[in-house]
Amino acid sequence: MGKSVSKVLKYKGEVLLREFPEKFGKNFEQNKKELSLMELGLSKTTRNIVAGYIVRLAKRKEKEQLKK
């Protein structure tokens, strides 16, 4: 089993993906870079967790669009 993501970090990831869909996608490294450029005051660990969760959300969103 992997580590769980807290509700607060999930919420941040969902809001960021909803507000800036053109900046975030399925590439973890690019998401991490965008988060650091946004200067949200996230620690390195938190930034990586949020970037990874955004990747997961983006993949899920793409998969749902392919089903339709």
Short description:
Helix content is 71%, strand content 0%. The chain has helices at 7-19, 28-38, 44-67.
Write the layout of secondary structure elements.
Layout: H1 7-19, H2 28-38, H3 44-67
Helix pairs in contact: 1-3, 2-3
Considering DSSP H and I runs of 4 or more, what fraction of the residues is helical? over 70%
Task: Determine the number of helices (DSSP H or I, runs of at least 4 residues).
Answer: 3
Major sheet summary line: none
Elements, N to C (H/E): HHH
Question: What is the level 1 CATH name?
Answer: Mainly Alpha
Q: How many strand elements?
A: 0
* CATH fold-level topology: Diphtheria Toxin Repressor, domain 2
Instruction: Please tell me the overall pLDDT.
Output: 93
- List low-pLDDT spans: none
Protein name: 30S ribosomal protein S17e
GO cellular component, one term: ribosome
Pfam families: Ribosomal_S17e
InterPro entries: Ribosomal_eS17, Ribosomal_eS17_sf
Task: Characterize the structure shown.
The protein has 68 residues and is mainly alpha-helical. It has a single domain, classed as Diphtheria Toxin Repressor, domain 2 (Orthogonal Bundle). The protein is 71% helix and 0% strand. It is built from 3 helices and no strands. The chain has helices at residues 7-19, 28-38, 44-67. The radius of gyration is 12 Å and the shape is globular.
Features of the shown structure:
68 residues; mainly alpha; Diphtheria Toxin Repressor, domain 2
